[in-house]
Amino acid sequence: MVPTGWQAAAPRARAGHLLVAGLLVVLLAAPLVGLSSSYRLSVGHLACYMAILAATWSLLAGVAGQFSFAHVALAGLAGYGGAIWGNLWAPVHPLLGSVGVQILVGTLVAWVVGSLLGLLLLRLRAAYLALFTIAFAEIARLVIVAEAQWTGGRLSLRVMELPGSDLAHYYLLAGLLVVVLAVIYGLLASRTGLFLRAMREEYGAAAAMGVPVTRLKVFIFSFTSALVGLAASVYFHTVPRLVPENLDFLQMSLVIAYAVIGGLEHPLAAAVAAATMTFVLEFLRRIGWGPWVIDLGVWRYAAFGVLVVLTVRFARNGLLVPLFNLLAGEAARRRETVAPRDAAPPPALRTPLDASSPGPGPTARPAAPPTPAAPLQATARRTLPAVVRRGRSGAGRGPIDLVVQDLSMRFGGHQVLNGVSLTLRQPTICGLIGPNGSGKTTLTNLLTGVYQPTGGAIHLRGERVDGLPPYALARRGVGRTFQIPAVFSRLTVLENLLVPGLAAPGSTWAAEVARAREALRFLKLEHLARERARALSGGQKKLLELARLLMLDPDIYILDEPFAGVHPALKEAISAFILELRAQGKALIIIEHDMETIFGLSERLLVLANGRLIADGDPATVRRDRAVIEAYLGREEDEAQPAPTRARSWEEGMADA
User: Fold this and answer.
1) Residue 381: what pLDDT?
2) In sequence order, which residues have a C-beta less than 8 Å from that of residue 445 and are 6 or more positions away?
3) Would the pLDDT of 15 be above 80?
4) Of 110, 125, 435, 507, which has fewest CB within 10 angstroms of its CB?
5) DSSP 344
6) Residues 556, 448: contact at Cβ < 8 Å?
7) How far apart are CA 413 and CA 419, in angstroms?
8) What is the spatial distance between Cα 553 and Cα 459, in angstroms, rounded to a whole number?
């Protein structure tokens, strides 16, 4: 049976269903057990509201990696927006000024402002994103205080309350909490949830795998803002008045602390912790012990802060996550065998393309690729499974041409690339070499859309593509690996492969899971399918990146130092894999400092030096090129030595590079 999307992408979601149902039972029974007074019911209102804030912030920051401090400010703006609308329209038209319309208006205010924030913050991540949202939250609070004619300023603003009793209000908010959690876990079980987790782990790698990270970032800001706006609009219509303190930084700090204590990456754990700690904080205001009464006041926050510090120090994944993981079957999965990390790969990895015949020895040199006149021999003795290939080139589009015209790139006053031109056609293996700082990485980033060139143009199949984002180029048939393997560490190996698979238009869960398993079987990683990617060795991560590219099935493979730091046996396996891709009609650009391997594999070599393309030809010609020799060994050494010695030094220098 092929796993469904829920089973493959979010094993925790099955337990999420169970736990949400349990939470619903607790919420329904709470008024009968402990929330007997009006005061305790009001605390219950607040607990449900804070639980929604913590769950949505966990989705935004913990799952999607967008660490925003604007969450509480958006909630406050939703409350004020709806209340101001009601105060303006209630005397004019009862329907337009009704509580229902006010809730709708408040939700729309938060949704619009959150969407605009997402658009403004597209290029900001990590500390810069946090600082910007802190500034936004403080500005929003100051505006609420300053515009007293509309908001009441520090004196508060009257709110039209929802009809019904305190008990009815509690059940309304409790039901809303369950609905929000169900929506969140439904999202996490979808391909969008998988993409959000991939974006959190490696933003650039997710884009290179075809995930539209810019649209996804706007979406998650917009989505969580709408949920926050709805929750805030409902909650603030169960209280008589609004005050600016609803937007202050203390409230935002509490939301973050609840999420950390429960589990930053688990919205349900964050919600449970928020509801529980809200009651704890309220009941810690005054502690009675016989005749003694201790009024803790604000000091209760100090004890709360100590709990946060202890959680971060000793339970970084939160206090409730171990229980949830146990219910999700994580403990059983962790007992599965993990491949050893020793220097030599296990026998199964020595020849990942051929399970039957022994692989080449660790010191064997890769077979030289054929010339265009001689067809490629079956060096990779096992053909890539047909189910893995999407057949992009066979869909009537013809062979791919990549044309680079006078490409230049300047960073400030530093010219990194200057007038680089080349043409690449399928099938071929093209090596890209050059001294450190020559511009190889910059050229790679330009070809894959990470940078926009300051001059020149890039054409793919006749279409100008320079300036397109990485995910757009990935969908047009350009795939890449990274110098340091950029795997999605907290996703499983199988989930890593599903990211590029499901990012393709028209893909389905069942088909992509089947393709992913075939790709893992082809590269002998199938036994690690359910293992977290962070548990793999360096060489296995290299293979995982190659497996992800198989799922993307690009026409052009750009491999950034695929042989760096890998065992010689695994190097032979990767070489065979490259030759198999070439046999399937692919074009490959390989950036590499292992000169013996790159000269043995390449049909064509490009050499960059000081941002210029100084050589372009077959390896034998490039090896004797005077400009290349000078770029690697320096002009002084070249002039000081006779020609025969110069040639030997060149080979030695290339071997040492």
Assistant:
1) 45
2) 451
3) no
4) 125
5) S
6) no
7) 16
8) 20
CB-based contacts of 500, cutoff 8 Å, min separation 6: 209, 210, 474, 548, 549, 551, 552
Question: 382 or 444: whose pLDDT is higher?
Answer: 444
Instruction: Please state which CATH class domain 401-623 belongs to.
Output: alpha beta
- Tokens 């490409």 found at: 407
Q: How many CB atoms lie within 10 A of CB 54?
A: 31
Question: What pLDDT sits at residue 593?
Answer: 86
Q: How far apart are CA 522 and CA 383, in angstroms?
A: 9
Phi, psi angles (nearest 5°) of residue 639: -75, -25
Mean pLDDT of 446-475: 92
pLDDT confidence band for 389 (50 / 70 / 90)? low
133-175 pLDDT tens trace: 999 999 999 999 999 999 998 888 989 989 988 889 989 999 9
By the 8 A CB rule, do 427 and 582 touch?
Answer: yes
**Contact at 8 Å (CB) between 323 and 550?**
no
Tokens of 70: 């604007």
Q: Where are the domains of the chain?
A: 5-247, 401-623
Q: Which helix (H) or strand (E) holds 241?
A: strand 241-242
Amino acid identity, position 432: L
Residue 160 amino acid letter = M
The answer to whether 598 and 574 have CB atoms below 8 angstroms apart is no
Structure confidence by residue, pLDDT tens digits, 498-557: 999 999 988 899 999 999 999 999 888 999 999 999 999 888 999 999 999 999 999 999
pLDDT value of residue 215: 92
Q: How many residues does the chain have?
A: 657
* 152-168 per-residue burial string, b: 16 or more CB within 10 A, e: under 16: beeeebebbebeeebee
643-657 tens-digit pLDDT = 333 333 334 443 443
